[in-house]
Design brief:
Helix content is 79%, strand content 0%. It is mostly helical.
């Protein structure tokens, strides 16, 4: 799956910001399948690390989709007529994704205990299915729905969605979440995103956050590069 080009200067800032967040889920869902597949049989140290990373990833994805369902779509729907079908389709796809996530969780719980090869392979297959399903959903949302958001959602309403996401992120994970968003951004996107943060957050990122994020990704990924 190809991700949206978030560097296009003509893209609305809401669309660009959403695509930056979506890229985190695209990247991490792909990497999870690859990292699980690479684990040697009986390596329960690695299986526990990746199971915890999956837990953090799935919590973040669920919070992202819940925020859309509860705060973004209700604002958008009153402005739409036939286009409402596209928004309702997003809600339905969220429910379908939840089913795949539950399947991955079941297989992850079984695999992490002993890290058996057969459990690993079944889990990696489920993670690859999740990645494909997720990318198809995100591509459609960016193509069909985010232009409607840009037209009909005002700055205050958009800010409220972001504030909810921030409130649901544990304080000790804030710099890791920031690093995950910034990892694949262009220099222009990074500068624009950082400029919207409060000064204390920017200082904390420079002093501590970058190192914290690098340690986290080194622990999870080992020697694997994040690029596709």
């Amino acid at each position: 799956m190809t991700s949206s080009n978030t560097s296009d200067s003509t893209v609305h800032p809401y669309t660009r910001e959403m695509a930056m967040i979506h890229q985190v889920f695209r990247r991490e869902s792909r990497l999870l399948a690859e990292l699980v597949q690479d684990v040697k049989p009986a390596d329960t140290d690695r299986s526990r690390i990746l199971a915890e990373h999956w837990r953090q990833y799935s919590i973040g994805l669920h919070a992202h989709h819940t925020g859309e369902d509860e705060m973004l779509w209700p604002v958008l729907l009153p402005h739409l007529d036939l286009d409402a079908e596209q928004v309702l389709a997003m809600e339905a796809q969220h429910r379908e994704l939840d089913e795949g996530i539950a399947e991955v969780q079941r297989l992850m719980d079984r695999w992490q205990a002993q890290a058996l090869a057969e459990d690993r392979d079944e889990l990696a297959d489920a993670l690859r299915r999740h990645h494909r399903q997720l990318c198809a959903h995100l591509d459609e949302e960016e193509r069909e729905v985010m232009p409607l958001v840009a037209l009909h959602v005002n700055e205050e309403q958009w800010h409220a969605v972001g504030e909810r996401g921030l409130a649901e992120t544990p304080r000790n994970r804030l710099m890791i979440a920031l690093g995950a968003i910034l990892e694949d951004t262009s220099l222009q996107e990074r500068a624009e995103f950082m400029a919207r943060l409060p000064l204390p957050a920017r200082v904390l990122w420079r002093l501590l956050g970058q190192r914290q994020y690098r340690r986290e990704t080194d622990r999870i990924r080992g020697g694997r590069r994040a690029t596709a």
